[in-house]
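Regression check, 6-O-phosphoryl inosine monophosphate case 431:
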Amino acid sequence: MPGIIVVGLQWGDEGKGKVVDMLSARASHIVRSQGGNNAGHTVIAEGKEIALHLLPSGILHPHVQCYIAGGCLIDPQVLIEEIKRAEEGGIALIERLKISPYAHIILPVHQMLDRLKEKEKGENAIGTTGRGIGPCAADRSSRVGLRMVELVSPDIFSEKLEVFCESKNKELEKIYGLEPLDISAIYDDYSIYGELLRPFIADVEGLLTDALFRDETVLLEGAHGTLLDTVFGSYPFVTSSSTLASGVCAGAGIGPGYVDEVFGVLKAYTTRVGSGPLPTTIDPDTLEDFRSMDDFREVGTTTGRERRIGWLDLVLARHACRLNGVTQLVLTKLDILDSLEEICVCVGYSLDGETLDKPPALIEDLERVEPIYETMPGWMTSTKQARKIRQLPENARAYIDKIEEFCNLSVGMISVGPGREETIQVDEEWM
Ligand code: GDP
Ligand code: IMO
Ligand code: MG
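Current build output:
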């Protein structure tokens, strides 16, 4: 069965959007299945640049069907704006986008609570995107959330919204001393969203399984990154969804037996936005060399926050490959290393005199680990024009060999710039 999952192997922003856009050329169906508009992907194709949050990154290819599956958390207002923006850019979605009735909806109180809870945490704040993801996911787990299927059923929605808001009002008034929610104003707004989104509601999970039975390629686009996984990431500095390949599959309602490949997207260095440890943090002087590169673009697509930068951490990369069952690697942003004389890669951690080959579970220990680096010579040549692996400088190939050897996986695609053409297809079967 031609099911392919694409996952990020670090703390998100690995360049999944570009990779999914590239792979979409040969896919028939593209699916977002977990997380919400806390994700942000920038895709650049044929001179067009588009920022995506909920819509799958394959939408620029008119031949693909796009899906937002049951595992997603949908802010209806944000989704409607995104659909509108895409349509203004000439991408008609009415026939091409399908939304699962099972997806939960984000309500204004979720964003409110996201911000209130962050404020309460003070210096221990997670640095969330403020999009209401955590509170919405918590309501789903507590079995009090509202879903797309209810949003498009006005009478049922009205009843359930009232129960939901009355319960939230107790929390807002008693814990935070705030005014109660204006339930009828929320209902008015959300009933308009329901009307606008109703035509997109479809049996996503059934359609996808049928497509797999017809042997059509289904690309499942993971959001965020492995280290933001709610269970196995750098807890508590994580998001609230399962970001692993298994979570992507579960959120799409597709059985794991239908998946053939898991492509793990690895940035040639590490970035992180929000709080939490980044063991391989780069010193400010070296950081200037990164920042001076064209197309550095390490500013969040969703919140505009600057991303923190670290060397490539192979301990985390290998751990992430195992958690996801990665079958092939995709290396991105190799071009950003082009001007460096020397490049460090982390191959182990030292903690209290012991050497660790995987990250510790305790966040306080991950804060304290000392990275063990291997230093590799840089290539100090532009890689942006390379289209074949043999066109890469020898030291760049040695860097890739190191990654392959450490993770025990091959690299099937290398990205050397944000544009579609700035790509090396190592595994020719992919395109
Ligand atoms: P995502 O969340 O994983 O989809 O990644 P983002 O889109 O948030 O961030 C990746 C950024 O790097 C985007 O601005 C991309 O346009 C850009 N990008 C992707 N691949 C490459 C690459 O190989 N080189 C460079 N210089 N930029 C890239
Ligand atoms: P993409 O798909 C980078 C981070 C936030 C914060 C933490 C929790 O673009 O790779 P949340 O709002 O989810 O409760 O915030 O998770 N985070 C991301 N960081 N890229 C993302 O997605 C992210 N999605 C969530 O910055 O630290
Ligand atoms: Mg991103």
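Comparison notes: The pocket of magnesium ion (ligand 3) is lined by residues 12-13, 40-41, 301 (CB under 6 Å). The first strand starts at residue 3 and ends at 8. No diff flagged against the previous build.
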